[in-house]
Amino acid sequence: MTTQHANSNLVMLxxxxxxxIVFAVDSHIPLGVAGGVxxxxxxxxxxxxxxxxxxxxxxxxxxxxxxxxxxxxxxxxELWKVLFxxxxxxxxxxxxxxxxxxxxxxxIRHAALEKELEKIxxxxxxxxxxxxxxxxxxxxxxxxxxxxxxxxxxxxxxIDALNQSSREVCEILDKLGDLxxxxxxxxxxxAYSNVNESK
Length: 199
Fold this sequence. Notes:
Layout: H1 3-26, H2 40-45, H3 52-72, H4 79-145, H5 148-154, H6 156-177, H7 184-191, H8 193-198
Organism: Pseudoalteromonas luteoviolacea DSM 6061
Keywords: Membrane, Transmembrane, Transmembrane helix
Transmembrane segments: 7-25, 31-49, 54-71, 83-101
């Protein structure tokens, strides 16, 4: 069990305990008091669990306990005030739960963006490294061009083909290095653009 998972379980346990305490207190105070509103406390605690399903379950249980407490609490206050207080409590519970879930979704989206940005950074560093190696190779071709013996051994056609290939690879790497959107489709389109053009 990882530390993060253990911490999440601890937060869940504390949230459930807090919910039971609030219910116990709410069941023993007169109906005229808005005793159900403190049920938002366990939902706020669930923020640290980072578990949307758990927060939803907690909101349902807190709502259920708020209704049960209406029947189990000592009588007191006018009926319309009692019902109004219970309604406010339910509204507070679900407002808090929905805001918590929205916060979770924002965290997930932010984590996904960070992961994607990390992939793009690694991709660009890789392209930069490959580009450097290819340009070194191109420099070696230039040496061949200026060496009469090597030109005679390889032949003009082979040397021209090597130079053309190195230029095409450098052009492709330059395009790949300037990409704003990194997807397999875009990379494939650029990588094979010269092949398609030659056809």
